Amino acid sequence: MRLEPLRRADLRRCAELERELFAGDDPWTEAAFAAELDWGHHYLAARDGDELVGYAGLALLGRPGDREAEVHTIAVAPGHQRRGVGRDLLRALLERADAEGADVFLEVRTDNAAAIALYEAHGFTTTGLRKRYYQPSGADAYSMRRPAHAAATPGEDTP
């Protein structure tokens, strides 16, 4: 499996995965993904050979030196879940946020125990509850935050 920048040619597959994974809510369309790329947000593709098996997106907000980041999405095809793809995508997003010195925010369904555990294992804590956040299902979401981690300077050991 390899990670690389998401390409416009991937957007149809992203929309297919959205419909499969998030059918009970409001799955993103190709146009929604295109708008994310047009805004210059940081999107990654996870590939197994030539097959797109996951994707993730991060928005960096604010000016350099005063940044915040939002995880907009992380999704993994059902046949590739529980293999570390989501973890690798999240880590790559966090590396980008860390390079900017940005706190990272996200929302996650309260019933998505696997995602919550993944986020907590990477330093996120729950900061609030958004009632009926996901539509049309009406599912609640936790708001989570991970403080900025300074990027290590070259040659510096990291814990």
Automatic annotation (TrEMBL):
For this chain, one GO molecular function annotation is: N-acetyltransferase activity
What residue ranges carry the coiled-coil annotation?
Answer: none
Keyword vocabulary terms for this entry = Acyltransferase, Transferase
Q: Which domain of life is it from?
A: Bacteria
| Chain ranges of the N-acetyltransferase domain | 1-149
Cited CDD domains = NAT_SF (cd04301)
- The answer to whether the entry has keyword Isomerase is no
Spell out the PANTHER family in the cross-references: AMINOALKYLPHOSPHONATE N-ACETYLTRANSFERASE-RELATED-RELATED
- Listed name of the protein: Ribosomal-protein-alanine N-acetyltransferase
Q: State the organism named in the record.
A: Actinokineospora bangkokensis
